[in-house]
């Protein structure tokens, strides 16, 4: 592994020398050039040290966030510089060979300052966006309102208001009080029902303990239900024993109960109004491999009439296409999360893009297939990179019509 890291580092240094050409084009000051390399080498040494000393047993998420932030703010933006310089070098090379072929000259044009400024300026803007995402972006919770027509919905549930939240990842936040405004936003929606669609923690149930009072204040007329996401099982953590890990989920269930959430594990509950019923189903995590497939829709939908109105909570949206939409239980609406919109992208009314779409076809917002609906929440929290750029943390308000 260390050999691979050294090879990767060597490639990065080669790219750094290329990026340095842009910096060198803009200044002849030797002190600035030396300063550039001192800072660059210091960052690399820090990054290498952190990677080589990373331990899964370290339950403090600060370290992971720091390394992810350095990578995204320092390394990734430099690809913009490489892109602009590479295009310029293609043009310079074409001019060189054209001149040599036509007149025999071997003149290679110098780099233009404008291209270097464009490349370095683009990199600086992206770095600032990542910084903004860390300081402010992860707290810019937005309420997205959507109306969904469910086939067979009883009249008593017309206009029923459901708030969906997903992917809190409590271990990624170190100051629960900074999320108070998001909790206030949830309560302002005056929901009939609150549904949480998994990943309350990063790995360990203890991460949620400081958040219990905050989430206890979430109000809903007909209750609050939740399910487990892939992170909630503790499969990505490191445990002193099998018995310690075995207690993780029961402890998380107990903590969520303290916060007023009833966790559904391949089961359902009935909301009843005026003798009419709405069925709320919750399955355990079901995702495409390597994600666990504990979800059992057969069990969760047992004894529910096919024509009854049903809402399913299933953390991973791939469950919808693979199982749910063709399942005989006839689930009309599935609520998922999991993707986070990768916490990076463009999310406008008519333009939506994120790198995560190359992994998940259904990664954000409302989808319809075979007459069934899937809504994918963009997530409440963060993981890895402790910020959001372009994809704001989401509170979904669903009105049934």
TrEMBL record:
Instruction: Give the UniProt keywords, A-Z.
Output: Hydrolase, Membrane, Metal-binding, Transmembrane, Transmembrane helix
InterPro entries documented for this protein: Calcineurin-like_PHP, Metallo-depent_PP-like, Metallophosphoesterase_sf
Instruction: Cite the Calcineurin-like phosphoesterase domain residue spans from the record.
Output: 161-341
Superkingdom of origin: Bacteria
Q: Which Pfam families match?
A: Metallophos
Q: Where are the transmembrane segments?
A: 5-23, 35-52, 64-87, 114-137
Keyword check for Signal, yes or no: no
Respond yes or no to whether keyword Hydrolase is given for this record: yes
> Would you tell me the protein name for this molecule?
Metallophosphoesterase
């Amino acid at each position: 592994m260390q050999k691979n890291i050294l090879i990767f580092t060597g490639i990065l240094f080669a790219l750094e020398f290329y990026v340095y050409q842009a910096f060198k084009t803009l200044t002849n000051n030797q002190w600035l050039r030396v300063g550039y390399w001192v800072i660059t080498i210091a960052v690399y040494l820090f990054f290498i040290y952190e990677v080589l000393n990373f331990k899964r047993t370290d339950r403090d998420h600060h370290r992971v966030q720091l390394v992810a932030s350095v990578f995204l703010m320092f390394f990734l933006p430099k690809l913009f510089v490489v892109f602009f310089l590479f295009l310029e070098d293609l043009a310079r090379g074409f001019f060189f060979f054209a001149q040599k072929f036509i007149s025999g000259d071997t003149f290679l044009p110098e780099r233009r300052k404008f291209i270097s400024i464009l490349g370095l300026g683009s990199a600086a803007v992206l770095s600032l966006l990542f910084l903004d995402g860390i300081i402010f972006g992860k707290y810019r919770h937005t309420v997205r309102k959507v109306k969904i027509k469910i086939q067979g919905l009883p009249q008593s549930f017309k206009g029923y208001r459901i708030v969906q939240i997903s992917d809190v990842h409590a271990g990624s936040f170190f100051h629960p009080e900074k999320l108070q405004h998001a909790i206030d936003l949830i309560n302002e929606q005056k929901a009939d029902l609150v549904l949480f669609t998994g990943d309350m923690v990063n790995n360990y149930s203890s991460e949620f303990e400081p958040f219990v009072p905050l989430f206890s204040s979430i109000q809903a007329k007909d209750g609050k239900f939740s399910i487990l996401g892939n992170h909630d099982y503790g499969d990505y953590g490191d445990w002193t024993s099998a018995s310690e890990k075995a207690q993780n989920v029961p402890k998380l269930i107990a903590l969520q109960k303290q916060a007023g959430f009833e966790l559904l594990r391949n089961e359902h509950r009935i909301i009843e109004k005026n003798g009419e019923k709405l069925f709320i189903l919750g399955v355990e995590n079901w995702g495409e491999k390597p994600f666990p497939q504990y979800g059992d829709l057969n069990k969760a939908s047992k004894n529910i009439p096919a024509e009854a109105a049903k809402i399913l909570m299933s953390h991973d949206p791939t469950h919808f296409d693979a199982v749910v939409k063709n399942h005989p239980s006839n689930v009309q609406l599935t609520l998922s999360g999991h993707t986070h919109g990768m916490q990076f992208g463009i999310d406008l009314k008519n333009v939506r893009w994120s790198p995560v779409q190359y992994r998940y076809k259904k990664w954000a917002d409302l989808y319809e297939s075979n007459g069934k609906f899937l809504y994918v929440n963009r997530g409440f929290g963060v993981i890895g990179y402790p910020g959001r750029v372009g994809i704001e943390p989401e509170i979904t308000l669903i009105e049934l019509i």
